[in-house]
């Protein structure tokens, strides 16, 4: 009985910690990652508390498999939490891969004895016996926890003031938590009462101190919000400065090109004027995307969807044969309440992404068509280019998140589209299959006649 008290107490401790965080702090990605960490630790320790009480080897083997189904996900849940605290979006795909590997381990646990091969009978009760694949889990644990701790170490080096102090508490607590890995020795026949519960209790206590006394989660949310607002402000200032500096010389070149056009080859004149129009178009799109937080619905009216699509396609500065990729299937027109100018910029952004996707894949075309269903009008915008990966899909509408290579995308366009559609009372949804297609569904409330 005494050997079950400690894991039962730790399980209860983590259950309470998860509930406190769930109800006390605002919802964001690090919040959910911490709850996942608490949940996996709770199930692990609670199962072990029961395991140390049973006398039937068959029941023990079942409990061991149940416990290990959560244990294999524990290193990844730690890594996931640390990656979210560090706020590194690019790390999420590696977190995803780690979860997939843990899922594969779970399959081996359920259907074979290659991961957990029965049990040892120690003085404190039954304990899992490592199978031939178990070392892979140990290696994964070392890799992902080391990587996660490095991310936090790097983040706290860059942070300032109170936030740096809070991150240091987080780093110390999770570092202590990882010492619970000493329990793995028991999986390989070394008999001693597993002391991991001591390390995870101390680690959680330090982290709860950072949460409750130092308000880590609240401060993290505020810091990330300030970082986001700072980026927006800097980009707005930079964009305004670029626009001011470029508009004048572009206008001068445009006027000079018009003057000398009778004296130079016609193709050269057209190319110069086209290049200037494209440069002005790019500036206009950048400014529109950056200032979408100031949408003024007071200027909204009722507009034809077909007229806006026609205007967007006719005014977009296509390169060479790009326009030939578009298959606009004209169907019944419908009106929407909003801004024609903003919606045309939405189409511009979707066209830009689709043309990039088809160019990158060296294949594909673009389809645009209208539909009506469930009291909602819909616009489908689909390209059969490179598509978007599963790990990028949840974040494509986040500001500054881009699946494109550095220097190609700035992560502003789709966030702009999302805000515009929401301001119209509608929505935008993305479905995609990497290497196959990318489909946006824009929904507009039906206007009562």
Helical segment tally? 13
| Approximate helicity band | 55-70%
Order of helices and strands: HHHHHEEHHHHHEHEEHEEHEE
Main beta sheet strand tally, sense and closure: 5 strands, mixed
Indicate the proportion of strand residues.
5-15%
Strand order, main sheet: write it out. 4-6-7-9-8
Judged by helices, strands and strand pairing, the structural class is: alpha+beta
Q: What would the principal axes of the Cα set say about the shape? A: elongated
Are there runs of 5+ residues with pLDDT below 50, and where? Answer: 214-225
Q: What do the pLDDT scores average to?
A: 80
**Estimated radius of gyration:** 28 Å
Distance between the termini: 74 Å
Count of β-strands: 9
